[in-house]
Amino acid sequence: MKSTTINTFLGLGVSFAMIATFIFAGFSHPQTTYAQCTSNDDSGNLYGYADTENFGRIYMSRTSWNDFEATQTTQPFSVSYNRQNDTWSGRGWNEIMGWVDFGETNSDNISLRRAEFESALANPGDYGNLVPQIYLGDENIVLQTGETISVAGVAYSTNSGSFVGSGWNGDYTIANVGNGDDVAVGAGEITFANVSLVESPCQEYVDLLVNGEETYYQETCPITNPTLTWNTTNVNNCVIGSDNWSSPQGTSIGTSGSQNANVSVNPSETFSLNCTGTQSGNTIQGIAIAVCGPTTGGGDDPVVDNVVAPDFKEV
Fold first, then answer.
1. pLDDT, tens digit, 9 for 90 and up, residues 234-257
2. Phi-psi category of 215—alpha, beta or left, where left has phi over 0 and alpha has psi -120 to 50?
C-alpha cells in the first residue's frame, strides 16, 4: 500500500507544487535556540515527529525535519500544542501524504482536536477515498465495517514531561471475507513519544497562573481571593480579560506581575489576560482556572463544575 500511495502522491499535479515549495539544499542543521526571532526560526512549540503505523513520520517543524533527514528544507512549517485546553494548531509534514493540517488550513481542526491529510482531503479519489482525518482526542470512532475504535487521545503529561496516549487515522477493510481478516487502511495508530515541547523566540504566549497553577483545585470551598501571576513572551499591550481581578476588566497591566483576584471561587472561576503579539499582531490569551468542591465522575477523570480536577489529571 505504501508504494502505491507514494506513486499516487507523486502523480498528483498538486504534489509537484508542494515538492517545489519544499526546496531542499545542503546546509548545516539550524540551531535549536536563538538570541532573537529570525526567518530561520520555527514559530511552533513542538519538536520531533509523530510515528504512524503505516505512513512513517509526521514532522512537527522545519527544524525537526532538518535535524533528522539528510535532505534539508528552507520551507517554514510548525505545529503548536496548547497545554491549557489540549488543542493543536499549525501544519506538519509527512513524506508520503504531504501536508498534515493541525488547524492552519482548516481552523475547525483546532477545536475538534484532529488533524487532516490535506492531499487526501482535496483529492479523495486519488487516495482510494482514504479517511483524511487524524483523531487526536479521546473518543470512540465507528469505522465503515461497523467496528468501533476507542482512541485514547494525545495529551501532555507534566508528570513525565512527555506526550501520552495515541491518535488514529483510517479504517479497516475485510481483505478475505472467508477468513474475516481485517487489514488496516490509512496511517493507523499515531503515537507522539518522539515529540517534545520546546521554546522558541518566535513564540508568543501568555502564561497565567492562579495560586501557581494553570488549573488550581481545592477540595473545600470557597477559594478566597486567589493570587494571579503572569509571565509573557513576545507580547505587549496586555489588558485584563475577565471581570474577576482586583483591577477592572479592560485595565492595562504590565507583561509580568501578580495581583489578587477579587472573587471567592465557588465552585469555579476562569481568569483571562489578553495581550498583543509583537510579531503577529494577534491577540494572545492566557487562561487560568480555579475550582473547588467534591469531585464527580470517578475513574481517571473526576470533575468539578465541568472542569477536570488537576489532582487526578494534569491539564
1. 899 999 999 999 999 999 999 999
2. beta
Calpha distance 187→115 (Å, rounded): 12
Are 127 and 5 in contact, with CB atoms under 8 Å apart?
Answer: yes
Q: What is the pTM of this model?
A: 0.57
In a domain, 64, yes or no: yes
Question: Mind listing the pLDDT tens digit for each residue in 104-156?
Answer: 888 888 888 999 999 999 998 888 888 899 999 888 877 766 667 777 789 88
Query: Which of 197, 221, 243 marks a domain boundary?
Result: 197
Determine contact, residues 261/210, Cβ cutoff 8 Å: yes
Q: H helices of the chain, where?
A: 2-11, 13-21, 62-68, 108-112, 118-122
- Specify the range with the lowest mean pLDDT, choosing from 10-19, 179-188, 197-206: 10-19
* Chain Cα centroid distance, residue 203: 14
Q: How many domains does the chain have?
A: 2
C-alpha to C-alpha distance for 296 and 50, rounded to whole angstroms: 34
DSSP state of 257: E
Phi, psi of 122, deg, nearest 5 = -80, -30
End residue of a domain, out of 179, 197, 215: 197
pLDDT tens-digit series, residues 269-300: 999 999 998 877 877 888 888 999 887 765 44
> Which residue matches cell numbers 526546496?
23
For 305-315, b/e burial (b = at least 16 CB within 10 A) is bebbbbebebb
Q: Which residues pair with 217 in a beta bridge?
A: 291
Q: Are 35 and 70 in contact (CB under 8 A)?
A: no
Omega prior to 132 cis, within 30 of 0: no
